[in-house]
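Give me the 3D structure for Putative ABC transport system ATP-binding protein.
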Amino acid sequence: MSDVLSGHFLTKHFGHTTALAGVDITIRQEEAVAIMGPSGSGKSTLLHCLAGIMKPDEGEVHLMGHRVDNLGERRRSELRRTRFGFVFQFGQLLPELPAEENVALPLMLGGVTRTQAVRQAREWFAPLGLQGMETRRPGELSGGQAQRVAIARALVSRPAVVFADEPTGALDQTTGQETMRLLVEATKHNEACLVVVTHDPNVASWCDRTVEVRDGRLTAQQATAYTTVLP
Ligand code: ADP
Ligand code: ADP
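Predicted structure for Putative ABC transport system ATP-binding protein (231 residues):
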């Protein structure tokens, strides 16, 4: 399997705090990786550096063989829009837009016409169990449904990598598990990688592999559910 995304010796300081102290991580084709660890250990900082939201102080990020951490803000922003998808804990859907337009938004930002973007967006509703929800506004959806709309929006641009930061954090256990199942299935079906930050071992168990961060370092790597080959 080829490497899609990798971080090499990622280091990040905030004042006197060392958030990342030289992390090496490689994500392979269609792999789902969970990042676990205590609060404040550097999980979100690692995700933000890999996703081009934040520049590491030292180290490099490579996407499909190209170095991307040193690109300017405009190019990194374009990269996030075209190559990456994002799912957050909550509050990421625009409340005034119907679900289908929320999903269509990344396409419209990329220059696709509204009609065409909404047509493409609608194709994601049935596979994610959202039939009939197309014209509802986020406030008219359950928490689990809203997260499935967010998953559709993350995938609609056919990204290489989906980043999810505590994607089930606002959901009850049962809904969270169902949401993770759909997230992993949908990313694999679309040949994307998945990087999930979570506190919850049940969430991590849906991934191929878990890495643990402590004090800005990776401490352990375990194969989980699907069991892929470790480096
Ligand atoms: P986690 O996601 O594991 O909770 P973070 O990556 O958010 O951890 O944070 C790692 C460390 O860096 C923590 O000590 C946190 O307080 C600090 N930190 C993160 N972001 C910032 C920031 N923008 N400014 C200052 N300190 C930060
Ligand atoms: P643009 O500037 O091209 O509109 P943004 O930088 O606002 O793009 O965002 C690109 C992607 O990164 C979006 O999906 C957005 O939600 C996500 N993103 C941006 N900033 C953050 C952040 N601080 N934390 C988490 N995700 C972010």
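The longest strand covers residues 3-14. Let me know if you want a second pass.
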